[in-house]
Every structure is written in C-alpha cells, then in structure tokens.
Amino acid sequence: MVATNAFGMGIDRADVRAVIHLGPPSSLEAYYQEVGRAGRDGADALGLLLISARDLPLRRALIERGAEGAAPSAAVIEHKWGLFLELVRWAEGGTCRHDAILRYFGDEAETLDGCGRCDVCRALGGETGAKDPEAVRLIARKALSGVARVHSRFGLQTAVALVHGDSDERLERAGLTATPTFGNLREHSREWLTRLFRRCVTAGWVSFSGGDRPVVILTEEGREVMKGERPARLLLPAVTTARAATASPRPARRAPDADELDADGQRLFEALRAWRLGVAREAGMAPFMVASDRTLRDIARLRPRTPDELALAYGIGRHKAERYGAAVLRVVAEAGSR
Q1: What is the pLDDT of residue 255?
Q2: Minimal CB count within 10 Å: which of 54, 63, 88, 288?
Q3: What are phi and psi of 230, to 5 degrees?
Q4: pTM of this prediction?
C-alpha cells in the first residue's frame, strides 16, 4: 500500500509489518508517530527511512514557501528547520536508535545502553562488520578530548578545527595549538570529523549551551567515555569519496574531469573553501552543508561567469544557486583578476 502520511495516520490495524518512508518527515516527532503504526501487536516490524542530501534543500524550500502561498516569519522558518535538522542528526547518528529517541524526548532513565534490535545495535554487535571496538574507543576519546578543551568557550566547528590541527586564531589565542589534542585526528577529513562530532551529540556525550551563538559542552556521560569509564558504543561515519555518484544526475550536466586541478584551478578551489568556511561559521552549520568539496572542485574547473554556467556544476541546484550563486560568482571573478 502506498499512501501519504495523512492517509497512513488513519490506519487502525495492529498487524502492520512495515512502514517505509520514501522521504523524511518534517521532524523526529512526526517520524516517531508515523513509524509507530507498525508492530502494534507486539510482533517484529520494520521501519525504513530513505533519506539523501537532496532532501535538505528541498525541505528548506518547502518551509520557506509556507502554506497556501503565505510566507512564514523568519522565526517560524528557523524553528521548523531546527526540527527537521534534529531528524537528520538522528538519521545520521551512529548510536542506538531507540536510546537516541528517548534522549531526544527527555526520557534518559528509560534508555537501555543499546536496544540490540536496531540497525546500529546489530552493526555494533558484529553482524555487519563494525570497526574494531578498541579503535572506535580511541577515536571517540580523542574527539571528546577536543570538546573538553573548548568546553563552554567555543562552538562545535572550533572543536573540529582543534582535533584536525587547523590554523585558527582562536585556538592560538587560547593556547590550544600547543596541547596534545591539537591535530590528534588530522588523518581524517573535516567533513568526516563533523559527522563524528554530530554522532557524539546524538549519543548524549556532547551538548550545547547559549542562545544565538551556542558553545559546545562535554556532558557527564561524555566525560566518562573520554576517561574510559564508559564504553564507546558508536558506529563511525562511513568514509565517502568525492567520486560518489548521484542518484539521478541531470542529463545536461557536464561530466566531471579528473580530480587534478591546474595551478589556477587549485587557487580558485582554496578561495572557494575559504569562502565556504566563512559562510558556515556565520550560519553555525557544517561547511559541507554549504557545498561539498566535489562541488567546489567542479566550480574551480568550470570557472563560471554567469548563473547558467554555474548551474552546470555538480551539486548546484535551484536552491543553492539562489542562496549562494552571486557570492560564488564573485569569488570566481576575484580569483580570476589576480
């Protein structure tokens, strides 16, 4: 049976064996309610959520569009966007699905330290070849040590910069570049480390405090994991490559060339990365949510001068073009004039 979620909410059967979402709902609360239509008789049931990177700009566009043509206020847009990002973080999280949902709803006392039945718990149990537990523990402790160093002072991306070993004047002013934590995970990419830290948030080891400019904090559970007093039950993020294929590439898009860039292209790529980092920090989001390295490399190859040329780059859809297109073209023009 295929139906909208509105139709699905009217189903009153106890023996529904599966609920499959073709796309993500608007929030974790909505998903929890909708997937709960399966298995009400107490027997095993399947919940499958299909989600991709393209769902983020699509959801943002739907939120900004509003209902019946009435544009919502900025506060409403950001509230709804925050709810959707909570669902994305849960979907990407590498800890027990059951426990993560309970933590989200504030039911810490009901967590099970792993339900043993969700996809994450089954992978951690060795059924799908999870990474060596000792290696996971070491990586998690190194990451959490970065959070401990910036605890209540800086945001999450500063913690990423610390363990990645990036040049950052805030880290230098705080004397953190001279600590053993600086660059202790430099063998991993910034994007991978960002996903790792987000999974630590989902696990309840890392949280935030503050209002418009939240700072990262290490929770008591996170401190115990960092000290080795609590097991680090976590699935590490998958390592993706810049050549990952899109699900449905646009026919008119130019196929990407080899990864190598010439000298001018490399300078433009670095300028685009610097621009992306500034935008991400100002918006309080991960850089890859602005644009992936693959997108920036394709822009550096194409060196677009017009919006139509920019649209040929990988990962530049209508929403990205409207939001960042003018700024990207300025970076390209400035780099070309040097």
Answers
A1: 40
A2: 54
A3: -135, 140
A4: 0.50
